[in-house]
Amino acid sequence: MSEITYVRGDATAPQGKGVKLIVHVCNDLGGWGKGFVLALSRRWPEPEAAYRRWHRERAGNDFALGAAQFVQVGPYLWVANLVGQRGMRTGSNGVPVRYEAIDTALGAVAARAGELGASVHMPRIGCGLAGGRWSRIEPLIERRLISTGLSVTVYDHD
Fold this sequence. Notes:
Elements: E1 5-8, E2 20-27, H1 36-43, H2 46-56, E3 68-74, E4 77-85, H3 99-116, E5 119-122, H4 134-144, E6 152-156
Parallel strand pairs: 1-6, 2-4, 2-5, 5-6
Antiparallel strand pairs: 3-4
């Protein structure tokens, strides 16, 4: 079994050849405006527009915790919007991250990356504004992605 590759760099400029899938975590409120999503929006308008439309039309689609949306932003480049946090603020219910939702969404990432023949690229998902711990996220990535043979690179921004 391979392992996660850790690099210093920008997850919005994934390294390597072939089809690439950039994965990140979104909230379940339709909010897009802090954290990694700002870097995505600086590069491409499509992930934000698709996410906002997905949330706005949620009565008729699968938008919910654990859902994943795949948005093509280039001939060989996709962005996966994963709904993996409840709300946006830490409060009486703890941090916004929902590990079970990220786990479920990573299952969809594994399937789509397999279909596309894509490598997977991400920041330390769920560990910024969502308040999660990498020690809980990393095993989910290993179980859902690495164990299926997918190449995964995690970017730590300088």
